[in-house]
Amino acid sequence: MIKPFFGQLRRFYSPALWLQLRKSPYQIYAHLKIHRFQVDNQLPDAVFPTVLHPGTTPQYVVRRSGPKPFFESALLLHSSRNTKTL
Questions:
Q1: 16-25 per-position pLDDT tens digit
Q2: pLDDT (tens digit, 9 = 90+) per residue, 10-59?
Q3: Is the separation of the CB atoms in 69 and 33 below 8 Å?
Q4: What does the alpha-carbon distance between residue 53 and residue 18 come to, in Å, rounded to a whole number?
Q5: Bridge-partner residues for 32, per DSSP?
Q6: pTM to 2 decimal places
Q7: Distance CA 37, CA 19 (A)
Q8: In 3D, which of 40, 29, 37 has the Cα closest to residue 69?
Q9: Which of 38, 45, 49, 1 lies closest to 16, judged by CA?
Q10: 10-32: b or e for each residue (b if 16 or more CB lie within 10 Å)?
Q11: DSSP-derived 3-state class of residue 78
């Protein structure tokens, strides 16, 4: 290296488990994302040592909209002031 290049680093951080919970007097909102999930077979001579793992996302999808989670779910519960049901 004759001349070093100083540029910005771009890092992508996605935690393995992400949970957001919001609560108000009449609403409860929960949002769950699982980014990386893998199930391994613990037998010593297993034919398939990895049972379940996320596949690779095509690069054109990652460039267009960023990395996608393995599982994503959202829940919204609304309770009324006049009734006692959800």
A1: 889 999 999 9
A2: 776 767 889 999 999 989 999 999 988 888 888 888 898 888 877 788 88
A3: yes
A4: 18
A5: 19, 73
A6: 0.62
A7: 15
A8: 37
A9: 38
A10: eeeeeeeeeeeeeeeeeeeeeee
A11: strand
